[in-house]
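Lab notes, practical 5.
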Amino acid sequence: MKIYTKKGDQGETGLFGGKRLPKHHIRIESYGSVDELNSFIGLLADNTQNQETKSTLKSIQNTLFVIGAHLASDPDKDLKLPDFDEHAVEKLEQAIDEMDSQLPPLKNFILPGGHPVVSYCHIARCVCRRAERNMVALNEVESVDVSLLTFMNRLSDYLFVLARYLGKQLGVADVVWNS
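Output from the prediction step:
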């Protein structure tokens, strides 16, 4: 299989199902942002020593691939897509609650930073928020499964709490914002 097809040289790309769209279409922006997020989560997983976190991040990456497949598919075709785990949001919420129970209460806004792993969490969180915004914009013109939107919203919360949790494990204090 060749890596290049030359079909995108004129600014269009194909969805699963064959439909062609301009590369700037909000559907393409949506799954492109999800793909970017998946890459940053891979970077984060590669740079953390916490095995439980690595396992959770790997599961998240698999879920993001499923979301990407849904977004990259022609909504007008009846295609067999990978199933979205109906418990994925609950799993994130449980992980958030578990980590948060081990953290001091948040009393200030915090700045990203303090350690590279903490910063990678915040970068992933920001990319997640952008992907979510793109998906919401797509949902205004073409229906997006609400469970996918909910997952992305909860994932950004998970990444925020993960930044604080890993920082605590690394002995790094939150970088408090002083206005």
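Observations recorded by the TA: The chain has one domain: 21-71+87-176. Helices lie at 26-46, 51-71, 88-100, 116-141, 146-169.
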